[in-house]
Structure formats: structure tokens, C-alpha cells
Amino acid sequence: MKRRRRRQQRFEGSQQLRWMISYADFLTLLFAFFAFLYAISNINEEKFRNVSRTLLQIFDVEPSAIEPIELEGTPQGPDLFNPLYRPEPIPSTREDLADTEPYHQESTLLDIRQRTESQFQQLIQDQLISVSGTENWLEINLQEPILFSPGSADITDEAEALLYEIAKILAPLNNPVAVEGYTDQSPAGGEFDTNWELSAMRAANVVRYLQQAGVSGQRLSAVGFGEFQPQFDETNPVRAERNRRVSIVVTRLGGPNILTVPGEAGQGGQTGPEFAEP
């Protein structure tokens, strides 16, 4: 009986001390790990190669797999954790935004308006061209008779001369130019099934000619509104004909690309503030 108790006590004693073996192994590995970290923190090329060869022998890896890459110096990035660090602004790639002061832009649009009104004074008096705008945009309205035959989207020979003169005014500038086509409520007829197609094709043809005449294609856009944005009262046949038009809208640099928003029918279009007369 006593022998059994002695054996049991010896067994229990050895069991209690067993954890110390695992603990000692853990400490040994932990020490080796930190020793390795310390070694690589002060590594040079020769030490790196020695460690590499040791690892290669352990894992049986081809030597070329972990050869160090020769670098021509360590790139120094910005100190993002420095509270005084301020990233450099990214330079703009658009040279056309270099001079976008409000006064300069307003004077540019005013200059376009004055040149247009001076050059096409007779057509303005005949109500074939109208010019309107605000400090943000300028709109040149061209009536159908001076651009197209009824139901056609082909620019007439006389219209080419007119558009060429307009292109000479717009070409030196960097402002966005939107060309908008409109019709009245009468059926399109001819080769077009709808007024959508007729108005869009007319706008596209004007854009194409302006580009050929020297206006940058990157600045140009075309859109067709069909009969759905009349500028004049459709119940009056004479006034309704004036809804068949093309508008050339010049907007400020760096500003929103503003589409024409006609006023109420019979009110003559935009009701925004006009430029002051010179």
C-alpha cells in the first residue's frame, strides 16, 4: 500500500514539472527569434548572404530564388506621420484653366457678344440672328432660313460663309461651345422620321463645320432638343417658325456646362441678367 502511494506521489510530482520543459523550450525559441531580429536589423550584404544560404539549406530552395536585388539607393518617400507635412498640389494639365479669373472670363464673353453684334448687325435687325447671355454664358441664335432648307440638315452655301465668320471669333478662345438644335411642332418630313433626328443632325453638322473652320473639337458638343423646348408661342404660326433654330452657347472656362433653358413661350427665351451695353 505504501509502495503504491510512493509511486503515485512520484508520478504526480513528475507531471507537475512537465510544463517547465515546454516553457523552457518556448523561451529558448523566443530568445532565438529576437536574436534573429536583432541580427537582421544590423544586416549588411555579407550577413544577408550567410543567412540566405542557411535558409536555403534548411528549406532546400534553389539559390536564385532569394538572391538580393541590387538597388541604386533607397527611395525616400514623404514623412506622412510628420504633422508639418503638407503634400504638394498636383499641377493641372489643362492650360486653358490657367487664366480663369471671373473678370477676365466676363470680359471675354462680352467681347464675343460685341464682335458678333457688330459683324452681323444687319442679320440681327432682320431677326435672323439674336445674341443674349449673362456673366456665365453667351448664346448666339441662328434661325433656320440662314442655315438650312426646310426639313433638311444640310448647311447651305450661304450658311457656310456665316459659320466661317463665327468660327473666326470662337477659334482663338478656349471656352466650351455647345451647339443646340431646335425645331417647331410641325412634322420633320424629308429623310427624318422625327424632329429629334432633324434637330440633332443639324447641331452635329454645325459642329462639324465649326471644327473644320478652326474651332477645337475638344471644346465642341452637339445636342438636339426637337420640338420640346419652344422659345416662342406655337399657336402663332409666324412666331412658331422662329423655334426652328440652332443655338451656339459659349460658357465660361472652369464653370458648369450650361445648357439653354428657354423661358416661357412667347417670352423670348432666357430671362437671366443681360450684359450691360457698352
Automatic annotation (TrEMBL):
Residue ranges of region Disordered? 259-278
Question: Any idea where the OmpA-like domain is?
Answer: 135-254
Membrane topology per the entry is: Single-pass membrane protein
Any single Gene Ontology cellular-component annotation? plasma membrane
Pfam families membership: MotB_plug, OmpA
State the InterPro entries in the record: Bact_OuterMem_StrucFunc (IPR050330), MotB-like_N_dom (IPR025713), OmpA-like (IPR006665), OmpA-like_sf (IPR036737)
Transmembrane intervals: 21-40
Q: Which UniProt keywords apply?
A: Cell membrane, Cell projection, Cilium, Flagellum, Membrane, Transmembrane, Transmembrane helix
Domain of life from the UniProt record:
Bacteria
Q: Which CDD domains match?
A: OmpA_C-like
User: What does the UniProt entry say about where the protein is found?
Assistant: Cell membrane
Keyword Protein transport belongs to the record: no
UniProt record similarity statement: Belongs to the MotB family.
What protein name is recorded for this chain? Flagellar motor protein MotD
| Source organism | Saccharospirillum salsuginis
